[in-house]
User: Fold Fur family transcriptional regulator, peroxide stress response regulator from Treponema porcinum.
Amino acid sequence: MTKNAEYILEIINNSKNHPTAEQIFLLLKEKNEKAVLATVYNNLSWLYGQGLIRKISAEGNPDRYDRTERHDHLICRCCGRITDVMLGDLTAELQAQLGVRMLSYDLRMNCICPDCQKKSNNAP
Ligand SMILES: [Zn+2]
Ligand SMILES: [Zn+2]
Assistant:
């Protein structure tokens, strides 16, 4: 693994904010000022290919990156905010219902977050 890939993996594993490539880029710059945005994209796609990170794609928002530790996501339909949800591992239960050998699953719940809810309540 290259130094940059190591740094990027570390940034993602230490972040709870589901950073975008651009946010990762800014953090990487602090460790390696020579880094360019293309470095980030190349390494993200390599790390993703190796199964070392997760990618969260939501319509209308840039891809976000996350650690691989088992957890699920609650996503606000308005602002795209992502909150981690710990539901426990449903693999066995789902597998029993579906009758297939599941490799993984990615549960995503859509919501309107409290902030956006407030905004829409205040809207005229
Ligand atoms: Zn929101
Ligand atoms: Zn997450």
User: Anything to note?
Assistant: The first helix runs from residue 3 to 13. Residues 70-124 form a domain with the Dna Ligase; domain 1 fold (CATH 3.30.1490.190). Residues 18, 66, 71, 73, 84 surround zinc ion (ligand 2) (CB under 6 Å). DSSP finds five helices and five strands in the chain.
